Amino acid sequence: MMAIENLQRIVPPLTEWFRAFARELPWRSDPLPYYVWISEIMLQQTRVEAVKPYYRRFIEALPDVRALADCPEEKLFKLWEGLGYYSRARNLKRAAQEMVRSFGGEIPGDYEALLSLPGIGSYTAGAIASIAFHIPVSAVDGNVLRVASRLTGSEECIDEPRVKRFWEERLTCLIRDSGTDSGLFNQAMMEVGALVCLPGGRPACGACPLAACCRAFRDGTWERIPVRRKKKARRIEERTVLLVRDAVSTLLHKREDRGLLAGLWELPNLEGSLNEGQVMEYCQKLGLKAVQIHPLPEAKHIFTHVEWHMRGFLLLVEDMQEARQSGQLEENRFLAAGTELIGERYPIPSAFRPYMDFLGLRIGSEAPALNPPAAEIIPEGRQSLSGEYRENRG
Ligand code: SF4
Q: Which of 32, 111, 239, 337 would bridge with 129, disulfide CB 3.0–4.6 Å?
């Protein structure tokens, strides 16, 4: 493995390259602590291009720590809708509340204090501390681990916490000994990992500022480095998703407060791949009278550990008012709302995107709906619905 004193050699070419080739990103132009924090949390598990529109909308709606601390959960989730991993949003709010309570509504400029906040681990604490406060500390994420392992030819498994700790300490020493700006160094390492030293495929070593001192490049070992733990196969769950509509509204269900997608709104869905008869029976139990039923296309959604294989039905029911008045829907955490209101207020996870498309609704800041609105799959005779569907499209 490359000795620590040799690692010092990477600093000048790395930082020069970053100054010349760094991407212009909305959170980079003005690296206030709040902006760095929000962007780093959004960027966990999400691509830069996907984050950009979310970031802009979020900062506009919640421009500082106090606004975030006071934000009602439903509004927060609506801003997060489509980004996934909603515990990140929940932790943002909890951390903001803690900042109001203990740090005068400011983000603390102290690595240990940052680490004590909900949702902030060593990487995020390092990123905020270095980029916003120039504290000499490393920020080691998957990109940095990949670059560091290849540079030094390390075949240690990067999923091991002790390996991550090793690199955090080692790169912190490097930052301190070299006297380089920590924010610049950390961002440069991340940028090389994001743009040049790519995962899953051949890294662009020819364009890499570190090629001259890279062990994996010299030995041709980039393909087997970094070493990763074998991932467990995902559990497959079959689900039947229901788009239940009367003339003016669509039925939504609030998920349990714990577990997958906790507390979010969803299209009603049932375990298993059910047939029309079973679906009609279920509706009846809710006090809803189905008038028509139409199959919708199958869809798949991948979570970290589970994969949903979904089939769907559009159910046209008689006025939901009666079931609403009887309290039967509310008791079971259901709600009937118009398309416009759903779009404005209720956060729906992107697992339901293929079926929300039939309402002409986009989820979060994602691309426009591609499926035809539900009106187009409703046969003649029910065309009174079409005006509403079309009005709310896109
Ligand atoms: S030379 Fe290649 S393998 Fe080495 S750090 Fe650069 S891109 Fe990665």
A: 111
